Amino acid sequence: MQATPIKNISVLGCGWFGFAFAKKLVALDYAVKGSTTTSEKLMLLAEENIQPYLVNFTADKIQADLDFFDADVLFICIPPKRNSVELDDYPNKIQSIINAAEGKSRNIVLISSTSVYGDENKTVNENSETKPDTASGKIILQTEGIIQNQLQQNFTILRFAGLIGPERNPGRFFAGKTAVPNGLAPVNLIHQTDAVGIALAIIQQQAFGRIYNACAPQHPDRKTFYTKAAADSDLENPEFLEEKTSWKVIESLNVPKFLEYEFEVTI
């Protein structure tokens, strides 16, 4: 049985990733709806041929034209805020979004994070037990559980490693700093180009209904990677401690198996 073609995509949260992703979809002739929480950004979306929607939500309600959720695929691209109160509200906000989208969005993709894995000094993949060791990682895992429980088999979770790319130059992260800890620990990063590419591959192959770790396959140590990144940007080199204390290596089994995706940017 041939899959129903995907033509209409809604991107909830046109921030750093969501906006780049939405523009790529438009370039490939998808009909794209994009949301923002500020009226000032509506014109920016429209200029990129993204149908603009003003969407504001709390843990209790969503203020939006519900037509936004009428889509073949809804991408939820809203990371939790660092503020502790807003962080605690995050699962309920995502719950209210799913409630609004259910029955309207044929497929729902949650943009998540590899912070759901703790630093257990080992390699982890989609089959590994999740043991987050940060407050945000614990909240994100709780949110994943909500979408899995409510949507059963009709959910897709895309866990991004650390995102780098335009306006997120890793050379600036530690430039000029000294005694930076954990210098020999491996990095887990993904460039915006590949983050967009993997999300697009899920659509093109209609490979919904599973969890994907999205992380570049190269894992240089922190000292090597960030020192080179600083030098490439003509910034002062950082100085790292020669130690490997807490770490993890993020591996993906599902990206190569189900998407056959080839990374464009080497870390």
Describe this structure in words.
Strands 3-2-1-6-7-9-12 form a 7-stranded parallel sheet, sandwiched between helices. Helix content is 31%, strand content 21%. Helix 3 links the parallel strand 6 and strand 7. With 267 residues, it is an alpha/beta fold.
Strand order across the largest sheet: 3-2-1-6-7-9-12
Strand percent estimate: 15-25%
Overall residue-averaged pLDDT value: 93
> SSE order in H/E notation?
EHEHEEEEHEEHEEEHEHEH
Class based on secondary structure composition and strand pairing: alpha/beta
What's the tally of helices? Answer: 7
Radius of gyration in whole Å, from Cα?
19 Å
Total beta strand runs: 13
Show unreliable segments.
none
* Head-to-tail CA distance between termini: 40 Å
Largest sheet: 7 strands, parallel
Using the alpha-carbon principal axes, give the shape.
globular
Query: Helix proportion of residues, in percent?
Result: 25-40%
Fold blueprint:
Layout: E1 8-12, H1 16-27, E2 31-36, H2 42-47, E3 51-54, E4 56-57, E5 62-63, E6 71-76, H3 84-101, E7 105-113, E8 122-124, H4 135-151, E9 155-160, E10 162-164, E11 189-191, H5 192-204, E12 211-214, H6 222-232, E13 248-250, H7 254-259
Parallel strand pairs: 1-2, 1-6, 2-3, 6-7, 7-9, 8-13, 9-12, 10-11
Antiparallel strand pairs: 4-5
Helix pairs in contact: 1-5, 3-4
